């Protein structure tokens, strides 16, 4: 598996994937500093991060991971004496590492921004929020890889962004958030940063502030990750028979 990960990362060198690691958090910090500023820098940055910029960057990353092999009609992969499941899981794992790195970079910037502009979140709340977002978005990696392979880059980006927006606007602040996996992250973040996806503070006494949903939400997100990994790996393995 380590050799598969190294091979995947070598393919990234001539793509936009490494640049996204720095560019996406930087754009988020700048947007929050200019539009929010002051003590609202941290909460504003988190809102921009999980509602728009991270979903977009993650989908682009996954699309680029697939694009190189897709252009060659997967001939370089099919020629290898390896189980296609392992290759697919290698793509998922390498993209997950990318998501971890970009989450860490974002967290560091948020912490530094808190020292500069004033803290609206404690270090603990910020750390928990970053961990929650990372786990909540993990399951979208195998999904986006699959969508990019089936639909192409642009349709995959469009589909995932629209699905995330629907989750945030329609389900995140309702009672059925758990029934729509794209809404899990937004629902949990409401309780960790105390802000609605629209940028307004969560009203005092609102059930959205209940942190008891965090653990069940994380378990649901991890369950979705396992399920989508399994289903997409089975789909990718069928290429062997073609």
Q: Please outline the major beta sheet.
A: none
N-end to C-end Cα span: 24 Å
β-strand percent reads: under 5%
Extended strand count: 0
Shape: globular
- How does the helix and strand content classify structurally? mainly alpha
Notes on the protein architecture:
There is one protein chain. The longest helix is centred in the middle third of the chain and has 34 residues, at 84-117. Helix 1 packs across helix 5 and helix 3 (41-71) runs antiparallel to helix 5. By secondary structure, this protein is mainly alpha-helical. The protein is 74% helix and 0% strand. It is built from 10 helices and no strands. The mean pLDDT is 88. It is globular, with a radius of gyration of 18 Å.
Blueprint (SSEs and pairs):
Blueprint lengths: L1 H11 L4 H19 L5 H31 L3 H4 L5 H34 L5 H16 L1 H12 L1 H19 L12 H10 L20 H24 L5
Helix pairs in contact: 1-5, 2-3, 2-5, 3-5, 3-6, 3-7, 3-8, 5-6, 5-10, 6-9, 6-10, 7-8, 7-10, 9-10
Name a few traits of the molecule.
single chain, 242 residues, mainly alpha, globular
In short:
This protein is mainly α and 242 residues long.
């Amino acid at each position: 598996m380590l050799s598969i990960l190294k091979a995947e990362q070598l393919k990234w060198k001539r793509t936009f994937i490494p640049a996204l690691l720095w560019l996406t958090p930087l754009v988020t910090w700048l947007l929050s500093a200019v539009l929010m500023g002051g003590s609202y820098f941290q909460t504003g940055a988190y809102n921009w991060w999980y509602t728009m910029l991270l979903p977009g960057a993650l989908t682009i990353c996954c699309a680029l991971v697939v694009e190189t092999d897709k252009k060659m009609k997967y001939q370089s992969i099919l020629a290898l004496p390896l189980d296609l499941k392992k290759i697919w899981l290698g793509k998922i794992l390498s993209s997950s590492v990318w998501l971890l790195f970009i989450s860490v970079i974002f967290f560091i910037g948020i912490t530094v921004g808190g020292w500069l502009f004033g803290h609206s979140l404690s270090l603990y709340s910020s750390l928990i929020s970053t961990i929650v977002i990372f786990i909540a978005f993990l399951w979208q990696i195998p999904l986006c890889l699959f969508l990019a392979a089936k639909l192409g880059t642009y349709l995959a980006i469009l589909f995932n962004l629209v699905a995330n927006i629907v989750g945030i606007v329609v389900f995140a602040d309702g009672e059925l958030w758990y029934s729509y996996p794209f809404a899990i992250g937004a629902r949990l973040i409401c309780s960790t940063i105390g802000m609605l996806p629209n940028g307004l503070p969560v009203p005092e006494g609102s059930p959205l502030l209940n942190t008891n949903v965090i653990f069940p939400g994380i378990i649901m997100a991890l369950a979705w990750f396992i399920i989508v990994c399994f289903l997409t790996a089975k789909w990718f393995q069928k290429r062997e028979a073609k």
